[in-house]
Specification:
Elements lengths: L4 E7 L6 H14 L4 E7 L10 H17 L8 E4 L5 H10 L4 H5 L2 H9 L6 H15 L5 E3 L5 H18 L7 E3 L34 H9 L17 H14 L3 H7 L4 H29 L1 H30 L3
Parallel strand pairs: 1-2, 2-3, 4-5
Helix pairs in contact: 2-11, 3-6, 3-12, 6-7, 8-11, 9-11
The structure holds tryptophan.
Tryptophan binds next to strand 1 and helix 6.
């Protein structure tokens, strides 16, 4: 039996965070043996907010370097940049024409982002999910590892695929969201009730994958907890402590019970330092490799050109099938 296909991606806007690593990339690394994986950098989606052109370019390469430094093998996986496989934009447009305004209006990400960027509520922000559907459907992906916040976009992707198949016959595979419970949501260190976000205004809220060890330690020491001084997993009443436990658990693979035992009677000071050290030690080899790779522009270029060529093989096949069916010459 052939391997199941996985596709996922991260937007090229902003710096990657510990949340991106523990919630996404780290899991992708685990899946690379078992599945046929496509991992992309969604730089077209980044255009839905304003970017400095140089910065967008650099961020795209930085994410690519981090994918590899974190352990994604460019030979085993197809790693590519969205804009370099033109089929994404083309199928994106086609799917726009099969997506209803009403469906798009219900997207919580659209509502959130329109609030955040009230001066730039552009059409791309609105049709974002149709382009994301194109990303997924082009590769006939079976599984799409995403965070909880992307579930709604996966639902609309499934609806679009079903709609198209019903109209024109079996074309797309109906993809499933693959949300890993334990590590799906790393929350902010200052506001543990919302997801750790690269666009946080309070920099102490987020650990960037490029942060130096001293910075990481400082941020963990400042992390918001509560006044109980008991390390216990209870996201409802102890969101801060539970988030730190979550981070520690995804790094050490320990259960919440084991972690509670480990820090019984020890207080938050020691707990925070231990979590910080675990994070620092996990990131250290990745950061070293990252710096090396990022300096080797030729290597990076080779990887993304190779990746795009491989991705295009499957993407163009699917797109041709679609065009044939809808009567586009
Ligand atoms: N929208 C996703 C996010 O912000 C990124 C993304 C773009 C994506 N295309 C995708 C994720 C396709 C999975 C599959 O996290």
């Amino acid at each position: 039996m052939s391997k199941k296909i996985i596709l996922s991606g991260i937007q090229a806007t902003g710096k990657l965070t510990l949340g991106n690593y523990l919630g996404a990339i780290n899991n992708w690394v685990r899946m690379q043996e078992e599945y046929n994986c496509y991992y992309m950098i969604a730089n077209l989606h980044s255009l839905t907010v304003r970017n400095e052109p140089e910065e967008l370019k650099n961020n795209t390469l930085k994410i690519l370097a981090l994918y590899i430094a974190a352990g994604l093998n460019p030979e085993k996986n197809t790693i590519f940049i969205q804009s370099q496989v033109k089929e994404h934009a083309e199928l994106g447009w086609i799917l726009d024409c099969y997506t209803y305004m009403g469906e798009l209006s219900r997207m919580t990400q659209f509502k959130d982002k329109s609030q955040k960027h009230a001066d730039n509520i552009n059409a791309g922000l609105f049709t974002y999910p149709a382009l994301m559907a194109a990303d997924i459907l082009l590769y006939k992906a079976d599984l799409v590892p995403v965070g909880e916040d992307q579930r709604q976009h996966l639902e609309i992707t499934r609806d679009l695929a079903e709609r198209f198949n019903k109209l024109y016959g079996e074309t797309f595979v109906i993809p499933e969201a693959y949300v890993r419970k334990e590590s799906a949501r790393i929350m902010g260190l200052q506001d543990p009730t919302s997801k750790m976000s690269k666009s946080a205004t309070n920099l102490n809220d987020v650990i960037f994958l490029e942060d130096e060890p001293e910075v990481i330690l400082k941020k963990f020491k400042k992390a918001v907890t509560d006044s109980e001084n008991i390390v216990k997993f209870d996201p409802e009443t102890k969101p801060g402590v539970s988030n730190l436990m979550q981070i520690y658990a995804s790094i050490t693979n320990k259960t919440m019970e084991e972690i509670e035992k480990e820090f019984e009677g020890s207080g938050y000071g020691n707990f925070k330092t231990t979590v910080a050290e675990a994070v620092i030690n996990t990131l250290k080899p990745i950061q070293e490799k990252y710096k090396m790779i990022l300096n080797d522009k030729e290597y990076l270029e080779k990887i993304y050109i190779d990746g795009a060529n491989r991705a295009r093989e499957l993407a163009s096949k699917t797109l041709n099938e679609v065009k044939e069916k809808i009567g586009i010459l």
